[in-house]
Write a structure and sequence with these properties.
single chain, 561 residues, alpha+beta, D-Maltodextrin-Binding Protein, domain 2, Dipeptide-binding Protein, domain 1, Dipeptide-binding Protein, domain 3, 6-stranded mixed β-sheet, 4-stranded mixed β-sheet, 17 helices, 18% strand
């Protein structure tokens, strides 16, 4: 019998809006040349050949102006420590690496003007731009990159993601273990030529280098001390001018940027919070997300703000609840499966989230490489859920279960999203499981997440680059540092390892699809939502704002008209 869920009648503070806010900030990772007026979806994989970046800007546009948006404090501005979207979206504007992802989701040169790959796919030779300089005017050399990559992998740096993004390079693992002073696979040929050797040919290697872990930093700057990121000497299109945590971050245009100086003079991130809609209407913001409470009035053509309303494409993201497979009762897959069957995702998406999200049937988001539209997913089936619980090693007497705690990011007393409240209530009604909620500050949350301290956690993942490896291998291979659920299936590991070196795209995607199918059956996650199309308000004088589906540097393309 279907259990009716009573939805609390109060203001909705949805996890969706967290994702939306991040996506508005320049977004958590990317896809095809997506202008907000003309959403598009990516096709295929990034090219392995060197391409020059382009700047699709109206040459008659006037320079200058301050772009204002609301944001939250980044846990770090150190590229080698970044493991979250909030940090990454700011870091990509201040720092840079050998390559980057452009608004068309192509791999293009950043500090390297071009590169060559050996016939066996193992050796990458990067040719640096002679004109590239740090913000202080110092030339960027191959030695700077060698030092930076070795710093990212140094035990003293304590990067949580260095192995995941740089571990394909020969010698990185030895460096991470403290067994080597240098990385064997990184060789300086001359000031402007860097050679990197990887362990096996991998089609996604270049894409990994677009993540901040592979970015260059200035050795002298870093050696100033722990507070060096308050005055970072980066190479990106913007310089950090001012930063008051909890209040304001100001980025100023870098006129010497090697790919072309930004046309706006300044970006101001308002960090003190507030009601974005009210701030937008008061001209305190140039861009704002649209919440459910304002949707109807803004869609009304008679509303003056309707002309400033734009549709943005969905981000490549998945919101989910992670389950620690080593912690009772989630060490039993039948308990995990029961949780999945006991949620009416479609009803929650419609009634609570106003169909602004898509119920997740799998892990990979729609439109993403290797996405499998035929996955059945976990349909709402409370009878099956109760039967699975009964068949589990813990039985269906939930009074005898160990205490269950779900941890989510958020300050003490912060509102719990309404969709999460409904999910917890459904588990209580359908399965008799009472689950407590613990909220921790975001930076601490990330640290504990990577140390796998949570029994159950609420989070989302947005792609760093358009390749299924970024979801499936990084999050589910048994040895991955990002495997926060302690998931371990040798059959899945074998498929993921095979996919790493498979050269035929179709076969490679089939391997990932089979891995995804096995992962879903094992249920280390409770997949919840994929991002839907989003509505934003954008001031009419702001031009060329790209709503990327990934985290890419994008603010330099904006101009005011």
């Amino acid at each position: 019998m279907k259990v009716s869920i009573s939805i609390p009648k109060r203001r909705m503070h949805l996890s969706l809006f967290f994702t939306l806010a991040l996506s508005l900030m320049f977004i958590l990772t990317s896809c095809s040349s997506t202008n907000i007026e003309s959403p598009a979806t990516p096709t295929g994989e990034p090219s392995s050949s060197a391409k020059e970046d382009s700047q699709p800007i109206n040459k008659t546009a006037s320079e200058g102006g301050v772009f204002k948006l609301i944001a939250s404090d980044p846990p770090t501005l150190d590229p080698h420590l970044a493991s979250d979207a909030t940090s990454a979206t700011m870091i990509v504007e201040i720092f840079g690496g050998l390559v980057t992802i452009n608004p068309d989701l192509e791999i293009v040169g950043d500090l390297s003007k071009n590169w060559e790959v050996s016939p066996d796919g193992l050796v990458y030779t990067f040719f640096l731009r002679e004109e590239a300089v740090f913000h202080n005017g110092k030339a960027v050399t191959a030695n700077d990159f060698k030092w930076s990559l070795e710093r990212a992998c140094d035990t003293l740096t304590e990067s949580l993601v260095a192995e995941q993004y740089l571990g394909d390079i020969v010698g990185v693992k030895s460096k991470l273990r403290g067994e080597a002073r240098e990385i064997e696979g990184i060789r300086v040929i001359d000031d402007h030529t860097l050679e990197i050797t990887i362990d096996q040919p991998k089609s996604y290697f270049l894409a990994k280098l677009t993540y901040p872990t592979a970015f260059v930093v200035d050795k002298n700057n870093v050696e100033e001390g722990k507070r060096w990121t308050r005055n970072p000497n980066g190479t990106g299109p913007f310089k950090l001018k001012e930063y008051t945590p909890g209040e304001l971050m100001v980025l100023g245009s870098n006129p010497e940027y090697h790919l072309g100086a930004p046309l706006i003079s300044e970006v101001r991130f308002l960090l003190s919070g507030g009601t974005s809609m009210l701030m937008y209407e008061n001209d305190e913001l140039d861009i704002a997300g649209v919440g459910l409470a304002d949707m109807d009035r803004l869609l009304d053509p008679s509303n003056p703000l309707n002309k400033e309303l734009h549709k943005a494409p969905p981000s490549f993201s998945t919101t989910y609840i992670g389950l620690n497979n080593n912690d009772p009762p989630f060490d039993d897959p039948k308990v995990r499966q029961a949780l999945n069957f006991a949620i009416n995702r479609q009803e929650i998406a419609s009634l609570v989230l106003a169909d602004l999200v898509h119920p997740a049937k799998g892990i990979l988001p729609p439109g993403f490489p290797a996405y499998n539209s035929s996955l059945p997913g976990y349909e709402y089936n409370p009878e099956k859920a109760r039967q699975l619980l009964k068949e589990s090693t813990y039985g269906d007497d939930t009074n005898k279960y160990p205490p269950i705690m779900l941890t989510k990011a958020g300050g003490f007393g912060a509102a719990v999203s309404l969709d999460l409240e409904v999910i917890l209530e459904s588990w209580r009604q359908e399965l008799g499981l009472d689950i407590s909620i613990q909220q921790t500050e975001f930076a601490s949350y990330l640290q504990d997440l990577h140390k796998r301290r949570f029994q159950m956690f609420d989070i989302g993942w947005i792609a760093d680059y358009p390749d299924p490896e970024n979801f499936l291998d990084l999050l589910f291979h048994s040895t991955s540092d990002n495997n926060h659920t302690n998931y371990n299936n040798p059959a899945v590991d074998a498929l993921l390892i095979q996919a790493r070196t498979e050269t035929q795209t179709e076969k490679r995607y089939q391997l990932y699809q089979e891995a995804e199918r096995l992962i879903l059956f094992d249920s280390p996650w409770v997949p919840l939502w994929h991002s839907g199309e989003q509505y934003i308000l954008l001031k009419p004088w702001v031009k060329n704002y790209n709503m990327s589906q990934l985290i890419v540097p994008k603010l330099r393309f904006i101009y005011f008209d």
